[in-house]
Amino acid sequence: MDVPLAGAADIPSLDKLLHHPALEALSARHGRTQVVLALRSHLEDFRRAALNGNLTRAALSEDAIAPMLAARLAEKARPRLIAVFNLTGTVLHTNLGRAALPDEAVRRVIDALRYPVNLELDLSTGRRGDRDSLVEELLCELTGAEAATIVNNNAAAVLLMLSSLAARREVIVSRGELVEIGGSFRLPDIMRQAGAKLREIGTTNRTHLGDYAGAIGARTALLLKVHTSNYAIRGFTASVSVPELAPLCHGHALPLVVDLGSGSLIDLARWQLPPEPTVRDSVAGGADLVAFSGDKLLGGPQAGIVVGRAELIGKLKANPLKRALRVGKLVLAALEPVLALYRAPELLPERLTTLRLLTRDPALIRAQSQRLRPIIQHALGDAYQVVDEPMTSQIGSGALPVEQLPSHGLTVGAVKGRRSSLERLEAALRGLPRPIIGRMAQKRLWLDLRCLEAEEEEAFAAQWQQLQLPHAGGTGRGA
Ligand SMILES: *Cc1c(COP(=O)(O)O)cnc(C)c1O
Questions:
Q1: Which residue among 125, 302, 406, 457 is least crowded, i.e. fewest CB within 10 A of its CB?
Q2: With 60 as the cut, is the pLDDT of residue 12 above it?
Q3: If we measure between CA atoms, which residue out of 358, 366, 350, 459 comes closest to residue 404?
C-alpha cells in the first residue's frame, strides 16, 4: 500500500500552526510557552522523519498534530506525586510515605495551606511566638516531659541533639545499638556530622552497666541509647535499660539521651500488638532527652520530636542548626490534631488511621478478599489465576520487624501457556491512575488488603476496570 510521503519543505510553520483553533485551545489550558515548546519538539520529530524518508502527508495535517500535541502536553503536566493503594502488607512503608493521616489532620493542613496562620504569633499577648509551643503542651501531657521541640525528622533530631550537646566531645554508645536504619540513617555517620566522637562500648550481643561506667571520662558529653528498631538480637544477649543507666549518668552529671526511633506514645499491647517502648516510659525511667519520629507508629506527619528536660531542650533551640531543621506550618497543622487524638486513647483505634489499620480484624479483611476476588479475576481474564488466602502484614518503618500481623488478601499467578506475565501485570498496576502497589514473592503477586479500608473498596475495584495489559494473551480485558 502506498502512503503519500512528505518532505521537510512540506512541514507547516510554527506560527501558522499556533493559530489553529485546536492549538489555541491548548494554549488556554497549558499556556503558550508550553505549547510552543511542545510544538517545536514535534516539528523537530517531523524533520527527522523527513530525513529518514518516512514522514507521511497525513501526519502533517493540523487535525493530526493537535491530538498528538495534546497528549504530549498532558504527559508533561501529569502530577508526579500521586495517591496509590498500598497493598504491600507493610502498613508504615517508607517508600509510600509512611503514615496516612486522619481526616481531622487533613482538614487542618488544608486550612493552613489556604489561610495565614498564627505560626509564630502568640494570640494571647500579640507578641512573637515560638512555633514549637503550638504542640509543646500536648507533648508534655502525653509523655510526662518538661519541654519539647520539633524538627524535620528523627534523623534531624538525633543530629541536633548531638551537635548541641556533644560537639568535640565523646558520646558513649553500646556496640549492639550502632544501627543503620533504612534510607541511610547510620548512627556513626550522624555522629561524625555532628562533630561528636563515638565511644563504642560492650560487644554486639552484650553490654553491661560496667562497660558504660568504665568509659566515662573527662571528655564524655553524654550517654546515648538507641532503640534497635529494625533488628533483633536473640540468644545470649544483655543490654542496659534506661532506668538502670539513669543513676550512673546523673551521678556524673551527664545527660542520658535516647533515640527511640518509632517511639510509641501509648502501650500497643493494649490492642494485642507487639509491645514497643513508650516515650513516657523512657522519660519516667530517667532519660533527659528522648527523640522519635512523627510518621512511624505515632501516625502523624514526617517530623522528629524531642522531649525532655527544659534546660536541654533550650540548648537545642539555641543551636543555629535548629533554624535549618525546623518544620513548617503544614507539619505542625497535621501534628497537633494527631497528638490530640492520644488524649482519648480509648477512641484511638477508630480515629488514628495507623492504629485502625494495624488493628483491623483479620476476619473482615478476609471477607473483603472474598468480595474482591471475583471482580479482579474477571478483570484479568483466564490468563491469570486469583486466589484469596491468609498472609501476614508487618508494621514497617523499622518497628518490630520480627513480629507479624495475621492478615488476608489476594495472590495472582500467571497461568502457564497463556502468554501472561506477572511482571507486566505488576507494571500495569503501577501505571493505573491510582497505582496499585503489591509485592512479588514465590512467583505470585501478593495483594495484602489490610490497608484497603472499606470506603476505598469501590474506587479500588474501579481501577481494575481500567487496567490495560498489552500483549497479554487470553480472553481478559485489554487482551
Ligand atoms: C527510624 C529511625 C530513625 C530515623 O528516623 P526518621 O524519622 O526516618 O528520620 C532514627 N533512629 C531510629 C532508632 C529509628 O528507628
A1: 125
A2: yes
A3: 358
